[in-house]
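Hi everyone, sorry if this is the wrong subforum. Our group has a chain we'd like a structural model of before ordering constructs, and none of us has done structure prediction before. Sequence below.
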Amino acid sequence: MPTLKTTTQFLLSGIAGVILSGQIALAQDCTPKHTFTTIEPGTLTVAVTTYSPHSYLDDSGAMKGIDGDIATEFAKRECLKVKAVAVDPAAAIQYVLSGQADITTGDWYRTAERAKVMNLSAPLYTDQMGVYSKEGFTKVSELEGKQVGTVQGYLWVADLKTLLGASLKLYPNSVNMQQDLFAGRIAVAVDGYSTGVVAEQKGALKDVKVKVAAPDERVKATKEAAQAAFPYSFNAKELGAALDANIEAMHADGTIVTILKSYGLDGTAGDTGAPRLVQ
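Answer:
Right subforum, don't worry. Here is the predicted structure as C-alpha cells:
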C-alpha cells in the first residue's frame, strides 16, 4: 500500500500530466504556416509608434491601427503571441536593428535609403496624397492659381514646387498648416489622406473635406504613392518570407481592405501594385 506521500506524488503527477497534455493539445490546435524564429520564441515583438490611424496602443495596451491589425493577424496565422512595446518614432528602427523588436509599425515607407540598412516586407498599402479643401477638390489642376500649403518631407513636395512655385507654402507639421487653412491664409492643403480621414471623423477639420488626389502626370506621388511596409532585420530572412507570404494572402482574401475600411478609408490604398522603393 503506498504511503500518503507516495499517493500525493502520484496524484500530483497525474494532474501535471493532464495539464501538460492539455497544453500540448492546445498547441496542436494551431499550426504555423511557416517556420522561422523570433526574438522571443512563440512571440512576435513589435515596436509600436503612435501615428493614428496606422499605429498606436489602446488604453489596455493592445496594439491597434492599420499596421497593428495586420501585424496581429500575421501573428494569429503563425500561432504567435504579440508583445507590443511603445516606442518613439525616432527610436523604432533602432529597436529592430538592435534586436529588441522583430518588426515595427507606423506607416514605414519602402525607401531605397532604408533598404540599405534593413529588410522591408511586401507592401501593406499605399500612403495616398490627400487634398484638403472646403470645395472637395480632387484634381491637381484645381490647385493652380491658389495659395496651397503642404508639410515638408512628403514625396509630392518637389513636384508641387515645380508646378505651383511661390504659391506653395511649406509647413513643419500638419497642425500649423491646418491653422492657416482654417484662417483662410491658404485655400487648399495637401497632406496624407489617411491622417485626414481620422481628423475628419473626429470633427477636427470643421467644414474642410479630404479627398484622394486624382492621378496626374505632373505629380508622381498621385500615380505611384509610397508603399508602407514592416521593417525587419537583415538577419531575419525566414521571418521576412513568412511576412511576405501572409501579406500576399491577406491582400488576396480581402483582409487588408477590410482593415483599411474599418478605419474609415475607402480601401483603394490596398491596391499597392508591384513592390517598389522610393528613391
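For your construct planning: DSSP finds nine helices and 15 strands in the chain. The chain has two domains: 43-126+227-270, 129-223.
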